[in-house]
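Posting for a labmate who doesn't have an account.
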Amino acid sequence: MIRLDVGNPGQHAWTELVSGFRDNNLLQSWSYGAARVAGSGWRVERVTLFDGEQIVGAAQILIRPLPLVGGGLAWISRGPLWRRTGQEPQRLFLDLVQALRRHYAAGRGFYLRMAPTVNALEWDGPEPRRAAAGFRISEVPGWASAILDLSPPEEALRQGLRQKWRNGLNVAERHDVDVRIDADGTGFDDFLAEYRSFVEDRGFSTSVTAGLLSAIQAELPLAQKMICYRGSHDGEALGSVLMARYGDGAEYLAGTVLQKGRLFNIGQLLLWRAVLDLKARHVRRLDLGGMDGELTPKGIFDFKRGLGGTPYRLVHEFEATDGGLRADLVRWLVRRARSTAGAGT
């Protein structure tokens, strides 16, 4: 039987632990968890899962407790992380989520909700085994994005670009554009001011707010600060791209393309320079930070698709309660809030 250790290891130990999982991602990083709970009424628990003496999973759980009466919401976003080992890796995954259900839903009265890191293609079909005992499969579709493998040589990566995207890059490279790379946090405040103004001017809503980015950056040690790529021409800003690093992976978090930057195809140039820079830093895989054919604006979707990454979609979210009124009330409140604000992880 799977055993849980809710020992809450320190930042260094947790970072070392999750770096060993193939499905490691930003939302399971120490910095993201710390940023989300700071001054918010949430708290975080970090759990290691064992099969005997072997570590087979890990999960960072955001906890929103109900005051006085106990219970509340236990939310696992893009987790648990788990090892694809043995003859039946799907069975191991189900054992892991059952252990989490026993601990949080049945044992502590929480409404447990998780968005697992299980690619829909890892299952034998659209529905098998998803209705695991004690769980509901929610109506919320899984996270969709694409992964760009950075291990091939530069020439192969460039050849893998879609033709129109590569043509735009060729044009951009003929311009006299200065690209600055800040990997130690020195240019982050400038990026943040530009990004905040960019979002406000265009009036679009995003869960990747300037406040969240600032909180994450503050929690990161110097060697893991987010990397900012900023383009300018004759001293005038053209646009920027922000990348987060974790283990051997990275994720595109945010970017800006200013009006003059469009004339220089700054989006293609900065993203390509970021690809090459991350590759030089031994990053092996780049998550393009969300590519949903229905939810992602078409222009952004087509732009990211031009890099030639491999699309993926995770399975629908799992949810479980202990059947009591407290947990069912929390479930109802969460479902109402998500239907009002829109689904997302």
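Reply:
Got it, the structure tokens are right above this. Residues 89-106 form the longest helix (18 residues).
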